[in-house]
Amino acid sequence: MTQITIPAQVVNGHLQHEKSLAELEGEDVLATLTVVPKHAPPIDWQKSRDRIDSFNALKDGWDSYRAPAPSTDAVSQAKLFLEEAATSKFAPSRFSPAVVGGVGFTFKRAERKVYVEFRNSGSVHALLSDGVSDPVVEKVQPNQSAYADLMLRIKGYLHE
Q1: 139-156 residue pLDDT tens
Q2: Which of 62, 131, 133, 134 registers the highest number of CB atoms within 10 A of its CB?
Q3: Residue ranges of domains in the chain, CATH in brackets
């Protein structure tokens, strides 16, 4: 039994590799496929902090419609959450001002998504969705301890 490693990639749904298997003709071969996803480049946490700070400069109607600008409290809570994400070494896929007033973060992996929203009202909610079953919405207490728990929940949900 021979075991070999062949670097390959998936292109248009097909496995492509550059190594010929002709040299193994007639041998019993154990083939194991390990999929290692490509990851986005590492996040620049300081740039992300600065970007969230920039949300304080937005005015009502920032989206060219009637979106309320994020409140200073929503921005502060979003920064606290970003710090917890940095501590957890788990970067959001994206974050932006929310059109309902506040700041929203999206975490995605395959079909699963978690959207965390810091509303101008002071409330914080997390929506967990897999694209198949009904989304689940959870209320989150606006404090660092709850954000640490939420980061664990997000990691677990996206990697189930």
Answers
A1: 999 999 999 999 999 999
A2: 62
A3: 45-158 (3.90.1150)
